Fold:
Amino acid sequence: MDYPGRKIVKRSLKLAPTSSLATLATQRIRDAITDGEFALGEMIPEESLAQAMGISRTPVREALNQLQRIGLVVIKPQRGSYVFEPSEEDIDAICSYRYMLESQAARMAHAQNMEATLNAMSDAVTAMEKARGDGDRVAYGQADTRFHAAFFENCGNDYLRAAYDLVSGKIAALRTQLTAPFDALRSQSFDEHRDFVELFRVGGFTQIDALMREHVNRTGVVYSQAWKALQKTTADQTDRKI
Structure:
């Protein structure tokens, strides 16, 4: 809308040269955390990371700031940047939040774009089956993440997608890094994902809700137990070195 007597001055729309590099660095570091290349609580060395990526420290620093906003990175003044460390309360809150969002997203995806959602779910299950056969826990976790993301990608609501983005990185990191030793859990998880596909196909949302609650609650318990065990192992190794 034009206003008489008002002069509109537009700022330059030119992007800073580092913007695309920062975006690429953000995605690469995010992937390194969610795939377990950087362990939970591990320091992320800014200088060596920049060298490894072949870029300056500026886009790396921007990337770490971005990842801090979604909770994957903790920047400690005068100490450096670290991968987040979950608390038991944080894990409980994430699982509760996830259940509420995902149950609603599944309903909306079924109503908005059932076929695309079903295809994405089925493709993810196929990838999970292959990863199980290959013993590739990272590939399994990536496929698991794609499975659940399908609800949000097809729900038709940008706000719901944005709400899930607040925790999707943490969920992916916990899924990869804390369920790796649990082969029996992975087998149960796989069976449940196949059940989700069939229930979604027929719109069985009462059963989906019940299965989703059980699925999310159990993984939350596993995350907490695995994190405690990992912390104890680390502490024991530190004591032996001392």
Notes: The radius of gyration is 21 Å.
